[in-house]
Design goal:
By secondary structure, the chain is of the alpha/beta class. 43% of the residues lie in helices and 12% in strands.
């Protein structure tokens, strides 16, 4: 078991299932649901990268709304009247089944726990409270503080600056391989949470550990 002074978790896709919002309305959306959800997520991330490369900033919720509108435009078979329902569902995404128990166990072992996310503070607070994770997290770091999105190195630096800790003493967990690459480049010890058995990439910045779920942090 990798033991560290601090465990920092990406939020969306790592702690919270980004496809839960669409899944809740799968019957109304129809057969294009999976494609619709994947497109929504892909455009949401694309906007964050493009804005950061341009040196611009728009909060992640606005990007989430714009990405959803793009998905509706790209897949017109999905009823636009579901827009508000889908946005409402995004504020209370389901956390993955193992998340509460793993975080509680790490906390009981004396580690500091935090979330480091592209999400806006309001988005993160809502998701964390709805999953009752607020009782185990020591801190929630949002990119809104630095007004840059991952993988800008200033995002990861928020943790080391706030906690006065060396990067190598932080275990960073993310389901996003590009996020793991960014964190590895910064100097964190990294865990790629490969929930869907994706092929590896970013070979120059390999993760220290690859797991199918967060349960592996305890074994």
């Amino acid at each position: 078991m990798m033991r560290h002074a601090a465990y920092v978790f990406d939020a969306y896709g790592t702690l919270f299932d980004v496809h839960a919002a669409v899944r809740r309305h799968a019957g109304e959306i129809g057969p294009e649901g999976q494609r619709f959800s994947e497109l929504w997520r892909a455009k949401q991330l694309e906007y964050s990268w493009v804005f950061t490369l341009m040196g611009e900033y728009t909060d992640f919720w606005t990007m989430t709304e714009r990405a959803l509108d793009f998905a509706f435009a790209r897949i017109p078979s999905v009823d636009r009247r579901l827009r508000q329902d889908l946005l409402d569902a995004y504020w209370q995404l389901d956390c993955y089944e193992e998340v509460p128990a793993v975080l509680k166990a790490l906390k009981a072992g004396g580690a500091r726990l935090a979330v480091l996310s592209n999400g806006s503070p309001a988005m993160l607070e809502s998701a964390i409270r709805s999953s009752a994770l607020d009782t185990v997290l020591d801190e929630v770091f949002s990119v809104e503080t630095v007004r840059r999105f991952k993988t800008d190195q200033s995002v990861y630096e928020m943790v080391t600056n706030a906690w006065r800790i060396y990067p190598q003493n932080v275990s960073f967990q993310s389901s996003n391989r590009w996020d793991v690459a960014g964190a590895q480049h910064f100097g964190f010890r990294t865990v790629w949470l490969n929930r869907t058995d994706q092929p590896d990439e970013y070979e120059e910045f390999p993760p220290d550990l690859i797991l199918p779920s967060l349960d592996g942090l305890l074994t």
